[in-house]
């Protein structure tokens, strides 16, 4: 169980995440959804310990992630994995070495065993036989699948997925969604998936958290979210341009900005 | 009245900007020092980074060898030419070996060698680390429970500290050799006089001075270039800016520290 209490994050004057309480169920898939700039990636990075919160606590069992030592954090991370939005493969290593990287770093297994484990992970993502390719030789979808194989190489207890289907064609997106669902279910893995892909999020998640402007506006199982009577939730799910969530982020009047611009000739009526 | 007001505002703004820049500079200096020493402190803890250190030493050291040899050769040749025509006015051509040797070992070897290493290896360190930040590779290492300071910064800092004195030594030897060829073979200086004056006038003190300078420069280059890459704004522009700044700051720092060290060794 991961629990966040009054978790908030500011970047200068911008409040990326307002004080928020979150419970992540162990062994379940939690989808954090919301539009661009809603704070979902910030929340994911906070939960993974990649960012320090402005205030609040993140509890992994009885340990507060915000106050543990670096050494302890690295120990905790040996049981975590993360799939980054742009894959974040190590450019200097080929596919095999990328997937084998955590195994080389944290185990004393013989190379023959590691080789078998890498083959198993690559088979899971459908890329066995591509071990020799460098990251620069992979398509976006292939890179995501390699990153997925690397994220689960150590059979982690918790895996973070940052926009796992963004930028992928529908088939690759479907494959990644299925992989997340199947791997999490089989391995009883706690998966936290950040996505703005409504279809993927609702189809694989056990629990959904919907964010808007750094605040949770809805939470529950996918059915509860689908049937929410909150207009903002329905607008997001249906992708409607009009509704309580405005498309424009500007806070000033467009007409006023144009007519009061220095040097602009004002028309008298 | 309004002129006075404008002048005061301008002056206040100037000192405000100066103060902010100074504070920012000191903050960065402190941050760079802490990051560098933190990374160096990890040298005593496991897992050892021996393999990565050797790889970096090869990439930075061997990769810079060609440019060091070319620069060393032409520096020695120009020094011999310039030195010969100056010394010839006083009938002291025999001192050419000592002049070339002392100039290269004391000053030009460490400083020009450091400049070449900054341009060739330092800039690549900053850009490489910066790109790793942009592409979230450092975050990926963090999430794989691998400390990026230990894995990325430490081997590069140690490799540069060791590579600079070795490359400077090669620069010195090539420079003195090239000076010999120009002085003796082209300009007709007596070979015995060239070597005898070189051996007689260049002391171990000069060699130690050059060695200490090159080690200190290696330390500076390693700290500055890794820091600039690690703290680069994770954008394409940010990495480009960090790389330029790393080259400028490292070069200027080398000159400043060179003056301070020279004043100690003289």
Molecular structure report:
The complex is a heterodimer of chains A (269) and B (266). Chain A is built from 10 helices and 10 strands. By secondary structure, chain A is α/β, with parallel strands linked by helices. Chain A folds into 2 domains: 2-79 and 156-259, P-loop containing nucleotide triphosphate hydrolases (Rossmann fold, 3-Layer(aba) Sandwich), CATH 3.40.50.300; 93-154. In chain A, the strands form 2 sheets. In chain A, strands 6-7-8-3-9-10 form a 6-stranded mixed β-sheet, with helices on both faces. In chain A, helix 6 packs parallel to helix 7. In chain A, 38% of the residues are buried. Chain B is mainly α and 266 residues long. Chain B is globular. The interface between A and B is medium-sized, with 24 and 15 residues.
How does the SSE layout of this entry go?
The complex is a heterodimer of chains A (269) and B (266).
Chain A: E1 2-11, E2 14-24, E3 29-34, H1 40-47, E4 55-60, E5 63-64, H2 70-77, E6 80-83, H3 95-106, H4 111-124, H5 140-151, E7 158-162, H6 170-187, E8 190-195, H7 198-204, E9 207-212, E10 215-220, H8 222-226, H9 231-238, H10 254-259
Parallel strand pairs in A: 3-8, 3-9, 6-7, 7-8
Antiparallel strand pairs in A: 1-2, 1-4, 4-5, 9-10
Chain B: H1 2-41, H2 50-89, H3 96-134, H4 137-143, H5 148-186, H6 191-201, H7 204-230, H8 236-265
Helix pairs in contact in B: 1-5, 1-7, 2-3, 2-5, 3-5, 3-6, 3-7, 3-8, 5-7, 7-8
């Amino acid at each position: 169980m991961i629990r966040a209490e009054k978790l908030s994050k500011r970047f200068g004057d911008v409040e990326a995440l307002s004080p928020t309480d979150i419970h992540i169920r162990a062994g379940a898939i939690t989808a954090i959804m919301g539009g661009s700039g809603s704070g979902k990636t910030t929340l994911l990075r906070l939960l993974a310990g990649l960012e320090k919160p402005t205030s609040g606590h993140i509890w992994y069992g009885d340990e507060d992630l915000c106050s543990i030592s670096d050494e302890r954090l690295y120990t905790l991370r040996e049981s975590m994995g993360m799939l980054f939005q742009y894959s974040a493969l190590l450019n200097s290593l080929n596919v095999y070495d990328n997937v084998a990287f955590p195994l080389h770093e944290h185990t004393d297994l013989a190379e023959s065993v590691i080789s078998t484990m890498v083959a198993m992970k690559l088979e899971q993502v459908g890329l066995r036989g591509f071990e020799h390719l460098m990251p620069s030789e992979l398509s976006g979808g292939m890179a995501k699948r390699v990153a997925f194989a690397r994220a689960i190489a150590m059979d982690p207890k918790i895996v973070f997925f940052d926009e796992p289907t963004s930028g992928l064609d529908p088939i690759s997106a479907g494959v990644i969604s299925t992989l997340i669902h199947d791997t999490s279910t089989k391995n009883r893995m706690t998966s936290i998936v950040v996505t703005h892909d409504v279809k993927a999020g609702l189809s694989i998640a056990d629990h959904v958290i919907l964010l808007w402007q750094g605040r949770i506006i809805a939470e529950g199982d996918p059915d509860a979210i689908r049937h929410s009577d909150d207009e903002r939730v329905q607008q997001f799910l249906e992708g409607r341009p009009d509704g309580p969530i405005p498309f424009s982020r500007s806070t000033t009047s467009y007409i006023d900005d144009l007519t009061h611009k220095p040097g602009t000739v004002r028309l008298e009526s | 009245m309004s002129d006075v007001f404008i002048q005061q505002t301008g002056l206040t703004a100037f000192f405000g900007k100066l103060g902010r820049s100074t504070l920012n500079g000191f903050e960065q200096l402190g941050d760079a020092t802490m990051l560098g020493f933190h990374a160096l402190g990890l040298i005593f803890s496991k897992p050892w980074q021996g393999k990565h250190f050797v790889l970096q030493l090869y990439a930075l050291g061997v990769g810079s060898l060609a440019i060091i040899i070319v620069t060393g050769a032409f520096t020695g040749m120009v020094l011999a030419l310039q030195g010969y025509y100056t010394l010839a006015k006083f009938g002291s051509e025999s001192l050419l070996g000592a002049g070339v040797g002392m100039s290269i070992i004391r000053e030009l070897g460490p400083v020009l060698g450091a400049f070449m290493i900054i341009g060739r290896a330092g800039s690549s360190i900053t850009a490489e680390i910066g790109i790793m930040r942009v592409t979230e590779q450092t975050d990926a290492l963090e999430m794989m429970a691998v400390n990026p300071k230990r894995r990325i910064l430490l081997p590069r800092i140690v490799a540069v500290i060791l590579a600079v004195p070795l490359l400077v030594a090669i620069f010195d030897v090539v420079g003195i050799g090239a000076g010999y060829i120009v002085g003796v073979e082209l300009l007709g200086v007596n070979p015995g006089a060239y070597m005898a004056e070189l051996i007689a006038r260049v002391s171990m003190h000069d060699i130690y001075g050059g060695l200490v300078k090159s080690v200190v420069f290696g330390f500076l280059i390693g700290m500055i270039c890794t820091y600039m890459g690690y703290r680069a704004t994770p954008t394409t522009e940010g990495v480009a800016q960090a790389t330029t700044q790393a080259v400028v700051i490292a070069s200027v720092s080398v000159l400043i520290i060179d003056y301070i060290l020279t004043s100690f060794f003289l």
